Every structure is written in C-alpha cells, then in structure tokens.
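Continuing the series of single-chain predictions for the mutant panel. This is the parent chain; the variants come on the following pages.
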Amino acid sequence: METESEPYVRLATLRQLHKVVADLNTARSLADTLQTVADGIVAGLGYELACVNLVRPDGDLVVAAFAGSPAAEALITGRVGSRASWERRLGMGEAWGDLRFIPHTEGWVLIEDDVPQWYTEGPEPRFEDEWHPQDRLYAPMYGSGSGRELLGVISVDRPRNGRHPGPWGQEALQMYASQSAIAISNARLRANMQRALVRLEREQQALRASEESFRQAFEYAPSGMAIAEMGGDQHGRLLRANDALCRLLGRPASVMRRYSFADLVHPEDIGTLLRTSAEGGRAELRLGRRDGSYVWVNLRNSVVADTADGPRFLLTHVEDIEDRKRHELQLAHRASHDALTGLPNSAELRARLSSRLCERPHAVRGPAGGYGAGEYGQEPEHGFRADGFDFDAAGGGPFDHHVHTVAPDGAADDGTKGLAVLFCDLDGFKSINDRFGHHTGDEVLIEVARRLTTGVRDGDTVARLGGDEFVVLADGLGAADAADLAVRLRNAIIPPIRVDGRAVRVGASFGIGWAECGMSVEEVLSSADQRMYVEKRSRAKVHRRAG
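Parent structure:
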C-alpha cells in the first residue's frame, strides 16, 4: 500500500528525471553526452556511483564515462570488458523489466571476470531490501527499432536511501536508460554528420585544388590543349583552348570557340581526323592558321567526365611537330628525288609507274582497239576474270574500281588515251663534260631539267633516270599528242645554255613508250628506251646522209 509521502517522492523524482533527460539533449559531442548520462544518474536518480559502458565496433564494451567517485573513475575509465562476459551478466540475476539486478549472493562468481568493476565497503544488510556493497544493477541501453541493438550498459551503485529501488525507481532508471540510448544515438549521428561534413569539405577543397591545378596546367601548358564537347548537336565544338594553342594557330580564344578541329584541319587530312578514335585517339595532321598557312601537329585525345554520371568532354593535346615533319619530308624528298636537279629519281619514277599498273595478263585486242575474248574463252559482253580481278567487257578496270592503264594501238592515233612514257637521252653531253668539266655538265643538266619541267603540264612527271637520261610520264595522251610533246621538249632543249659566260648546246633523242596494265615497270621503261635508240640511230643515218 502506497504511503502518503510516496506521491511527493515520485513527483520530485519525476521532476529530477525530466531535468536530467533535458540535459542529455544539450551535450555537443558524443563524449559530452556519455558524461552527461553518468552525471544524470548521480544528480537526478539518487545513486552515488554511475558508470556508462559503451559498445565498441568490435562488440566489446569500454568504460566511457563515470560519475560519483574520482578514484574509481581514474581506476577503470577506458578499460574494456568482453562481450561474452557482459552477456553472462545480463543473463543472470533478476529481471526488472529491461533492468538486470544481480544480488550479492550471486555476484561473487563475477569477481574474477574481465568486466571493469569497483568495490565499495559497507556493513551487511540489516533488512531484506537494504543495498549490499556487492549488489549489482545494470540498465541496458538499446537502439530504436525491432532489432534492439545493444548500445551500452549503465551500471549503478549505492542508492542514497540505502534500499533496493522500488517499482517507481526501477521504472525511472529504465526510462532514463531509454532516453540515454536515444541521446547517444543522436550524438553518434551528429558526430557522423560532422565527420561527413568535414570529409565533404576536405573533398571539396581537394576538388577545388585539383580544378585549380588542372586550370593552371591547362592554361599555362607549353603545348596546345583544348576541351571539346562530346555528343549532341554541338559534338566536337571547342569549349576552351589554351594560350599555347591560340598562339600556334594565330587565333584568339573567343574565335577558337566557334570551331571544331574538323573546321580547322587541312582538307587532305579530314580522313585521318575521322579515323582517329575519340577515346585515346592519336593522329598527325595539319591545322589551319589564321594567315591561311598550315602547321603539322600531333593530336592526342582522352575523354574526361565532369562527374560520375555527368557530361563527358574530349581533352585534346596538340603538339607542334612542324620542325620534325619538315625534317621527315626533307628526308623523304632526298630519298625520292635527284640531289642535283631536284627531279624525282629512278626509285620514285618506278614507284609512280608501279602505282598505275596491275598484273593482269595481256588481253587480245579486238579490231577496234578494245579487248576481245582471246585466250580467256568468254564473250566480250560477259567480261572475264584473271589473277583474281573481274574485268568488264570493254577491257576497263576490274570491279574493285581499279582503272586499267591502256595504250594506243600502234603509231596511228585511234582515239585511245594512255600514259605516255618519253625516254630522253641528251646528245653531245659527254663532249661537254670532257671539254669543260663536270661543273659545266651539272649546270647543263640542271637547265635541261628546268626546261623539261616547264614544257610539261601540271601533274606530269619529269624524272632523272641517271646520268644524262630523263623520263617524262604524261597521262591522257594519244599517239599524236605524245609525238607533239616529244618535239616540243626537244625544241626546248636545243637552244644554247649559258654556263660561266660561255654558250653550250646539247641535243635530245626521245623514245615514246606506253604503260599498260599487264606490263612490268622494267618492261615499260625498256620499251621506251629501245624506241629512243631506234630514233637516235635513225637520226644519225639522216645526219650522215646529209653530211
């Protein structure tokens, strides 16, 4: 039966409980919250000693806060008890709701376990509900939710009234443990949020530093760099160009943003640019300057993303390779051109001839200069197949789009246009070398090369085969056209050539051959060479008769 004073005691306790619970929510950190929990037991719930044991990530419990005895606090704060020992304690004694009371009659078996504990002294109990120094009372703190995760355990000792807590005292301690669990969870959440904010701020600082480093590396890079859009209607448009690229192309940054590399590349290099992979691509090509000239560059592409799922951009590194490319072209020119005259040399002449010839066997000519069935045994209208190529009935190119080189039929002009090969041999050149020396001979060769080059069309080839022999390749000529060209070139060579104040003369003999698919390069040159010697002997006979 409740006494008259008990309602007043309950009301006072409730007020104290309300105050200490309110204090739980004012702590600023997890450590402050834990200490406030311990202090609230002593200040508001009427116990002389309180200890807060907090579950660590590994499951064991550490003494995180203590109140009521500085000596005991110094003795056990920071010490750890194993989870197995704590579960043993929470499974013993009397269950007062969520509380666990272990009387001194059972607690003696726990003296040797690894749970940090303190010892108080006092007389033996004089009545049934009097508190014994070795009694133990634990208030587990569980997290919210159905799992009832254990967050920690509050240990209390020595009630000020010297008695075991009654139903109201038990309820107050259990209520306080529940509120403490909420406060600890909130403190942990705040701590995690603060750590996350600190980490986010550091990441943002690192990102800003990284962006600034990239900006400086981009803007002040010694070679050209650009950022272009990827995808969408504006794919390839330049978004940014650094100062080095603007200087290289002679265009301000505001103007560069109007273009893509496809707008700036040399027309002959468009295919190279298109074949370059967007991701990790590399290409050597020419980009246009503002003054209309072009510069050789090496483009290296890489793809960067603004965020994990954000837009992607193409980062292009542009390296000026004009000097290297010029050197390579000079080496290539030296390898393919005559050092004295600057004309294509014998190797280059053969390469150009070879590019026009395929290895098809000779077909039998029809009466009109076309190709008939001949040895292939097929009607002309059906075409034929040889050496892996399909040929049309008129003797044109195979169906792989190769255009066959054909030749006029004999000296008569039958309307066929072909690739004329004019073999030129200088007459009287040896005597100039013998009389005036090789210096004069070299000057004569240089002038002859100039006159031959002047006398042909753009696109025709004038090559020096060696010594005083030259070869002219002129495409699209008939038999009469080739003969006229030979006469004009001979007439261009005959006029005197002045070297060191003296005039010297050389003549020229021309042999006209024709390149034709099915012939080798050597066969073509040999044919023109033989016809040149035929002409030379014929002219020599005429000269002897005239003499």
